[in-house]
UniProtKB/TrEMBL annotation:
PANTHER family in alphabetical order: TYROSINE-PROTEIN PHOSPHATASE YWQE
GO molecular function: manganese ion binding; protein tyrosine phosphatase activity
Source organism: Sphingobacterium athyrii
Keywords associated with the record: Hydrolase
Organism phylogeny: Bacteria, Pseudomonadati, Bacteroidota, Sphingobacteriia, Sphingobacteriales
Protein name as it appears in the record: protein-tyrosine-phosphatase
Amino acid sequence: MNFFTNLFTHKKSPSVRTLAQLEFLEVDMHNHLLPGIDDGSISVKNSINYIQDLQKLGLKKFICTPHIMAGVHPNTKSTIEAAQTALISGLKDTGNDTPIFAAAEHMIDDGLTSLIQQDQLCIIPGGYVLIEMSYLSESKALFHTIRDIQKLGYKPILAHPERYNYYHSNFNIYKQIKDAGCLLQLNLLSLSRYYGVDTKAIAMTLLKSGMYDFAGTDLHHERHLEALQKIAEKYPVREMLKTSPILNQSLADHFNNSKSQGIAG
């Protein structure tokens, strides 16, 4: 291949600005990077590769939130801490000292009720609890769960509200959730059509209404990573999120003060 062929066929390298598109967030507070304990990363090696690629996008610290879901992903503080220890050890072996904190994404189910009763929730630095619902049907226990978490002194965050299709025709429900004191977390993939046109439309409406409090990658696998990279290349992410008071950076100080980057609560 001669000089001119190389000149006109070589792909343009992404600019530093593009690679660091997510730097303003600093902390990824929702992901499935802990290896081998849910439907996310399958190995320490996978997790390290994902983290290295997310760092190229500008993210610096990671709050890992594996599923706790009765009968599907029956994780406990013990299983989560073991996976966190394995990941931190693997990172150190590669000379990577990326801060890794472990929390969880709690499905609203009978198992969560038990964890609340025992005060055994996995807490995000700053006293936050990440919760989710089924994509198939609304949880009638949502507002009750919000109150019970608040009674323990924690602040609930509802993961990816834009993905609950049963709310798309009732925008007022999002206001009710916010009025109940529950914060909202955007999946960055929802900025594109990754989850569909309707999900993107709701996400944009919530953003423009100033209703999101946090943003996360919710990264599970390679397809998510590739989609995030495309979003960083094509979308002015920081500008898009300016209409909502995104609090990710505020987690950094709490993160630094958390003992041994372990599970709080």
